[in-house]
Amino acid sequence: MTISLNDPSLLKTQSYINGQWLPAAKTFSVYNPAENSVIAEVSDDGVEQVELAVAAAKTAQQQWASKTANERSQVLMRWHQEIMNNQDDLAMIMTREQGKPLAEAKAEIAYGATFVQWFAEEAKRVNGETLPSPSPDRRISVIKQPIGVVSTITPWNFPSSMITRKAAPALAAGCTMIARPASETPLSALVLAELAERAGIPKGVLNIVVGTDSRGMGKVLTTHPDIAKFSFTGSTEVGKKLLEQCASTVKKVSMELGGNAPFIVFDDADIDAAITGALASKYRNTGQTCVCANRLLVQANLYDTFVERLAERVATLKSGEGTQPNVDIGPMINRQAVMDVHSLVEQAQQQGATLVAGGKLPEGQSNFYPPTLVSNVSSDMALAQTEIFGPVAPVIRFETEQEAIDIANNTRYGLAAYFYSRDIGRCYRVMEALEYGMVGINAGVISNPLAPFGGVKESGIGREGSHYGIDEYLEIKYACFGDIDQ
User: Fold this and answer.
1) pTM over 0.85
2) Which of 61, 66, 205, 342 has the fewest beta carbons under 10 Å from its own?
C-alpha cells in the first residue's frame, strides 16, 4: 500500500538529526493495522544515532536559548501554520499507520497544533520576580531559564499530538529536544520534523530518531549526562523502569502514565447526555487512550435503563478502515492487542458478567475488535482493574454516592475521572473526593491546551499544557545582590 498525499514530499522515512535526514543502514516495516499491509520502510536506527542527536541538541541549545522569547514565538507560530496548512496530509499519514478514522486523525492534528500555538504565546510570559530584601544593602531576584537538552519517548495512540504537547513547551522555553516515537507510528513524527524545518526551526533544535531498539535507545535518552530533562507518555510499568534509569543522573522528569478512568452516572444525571459522553469517552480512538472511560459506574435505579439505551447506541457504531465514510471505530493497533482485550472479556464472562454487545473475536489476523458492552461487572474483576485499551465498556452497579467514590478510587491509577450529575452540591463533593489529576463533570472529553494534563498516584508526575506546562522545562535561579550602596 502507498499513502496518497497532496504533497508526497511530506512522507519521510529517515531519522532527522541536526537538520539532516540520515541515510538508512537498515530498515523496518511500518504496517497499516486495518489491512496488515506494509506502507513504508523506515530507518532502523539505534544508540549511535541517539548519541548523535544528543550532541546536536547540546550544540544548538545555547544559541536557541539566546534568541528572544518573541523570536522563538514567531518560529513556533510558523510551525503551527505549517501543520494546519498540511492538516489533510498529516491526517492521512496517521490514519494509514495508526488506524483511527480520518475525522479523528484530523481532529488530533488540530489538537496537537494548538499546543504549538499556545506555547508560542506562553514563550513571552516566562516571568521572574523581585522579592522584598531582608536587609537594606541587598536585593533579591528570581529568574527562569531553560533547563537545557530534553529527551522524550512518545506513544503510538496519539502519534502527533504527544510530540507537539512536549516539543512546543520545550522549544518555547529555549530547550532543544530529541524525540523517539513509537516504532508503530514513526511517520507522523517525522512529518512534524519536515514542517519544523520549513518553519525555520534551526538545525539541532528538534531531532527525531526512529528505530526498533526501544531498550537501547531508551537507556541513552534516560541516562545521558548531557540530557537535563526526560518526558514520557506510556504505560506505568515502562514508566517506572525509565524513571529508575533517570535517577542515575537525577534528571527532571515528566511522566504521563496509565489510567483506569471511572465514568460515574448518578441517578440525577441527564441520561441522554451521559450516554453521549460515555460513547465519546469510551470508544474514541477505538478505546486506545489513557484517559478514556475504563469503567462505567451506574447508580442502581438507573442501571438497567442506562445499559439498554447505551447498547442501542453502541449497535450504531460503524467499524471500518479509517478512510471510509462515516467510520466510528478503526482497527486496534495489532493482533496481540486484540487478543489481550478479548481475553479480559472472556474472563469477565467466566466470572459472571453478561455480554450485552460485541465481544466476538475477529477471524484470521483481523485487528477489528467490535464495540463491546459488558454488564453485571464487579469492581474486583480484571476487566475493571486493568487498563483495557480497547473498545470494551464494563458497567458496574452501585447504590450510594460514597460507594461510587470508593469504587472509583480503588485503583493505583489517578489520571482522569468523569461523572454525570445535576446536583451542584454533589458535583463539588464528588469532584473533590476523586483521587485523580483531571475530572470531567458532565463532560466526556476534557483535554485542551489551556488546562493542565496529568495524573496522580501511579499515573504520573508533572503536567502538560496550560501555563504550568512550560514550567516543566524551566529552572528557577535565585540571585542575591549584596553590597548595595545606600
Assistant:
1) yes
2) 66
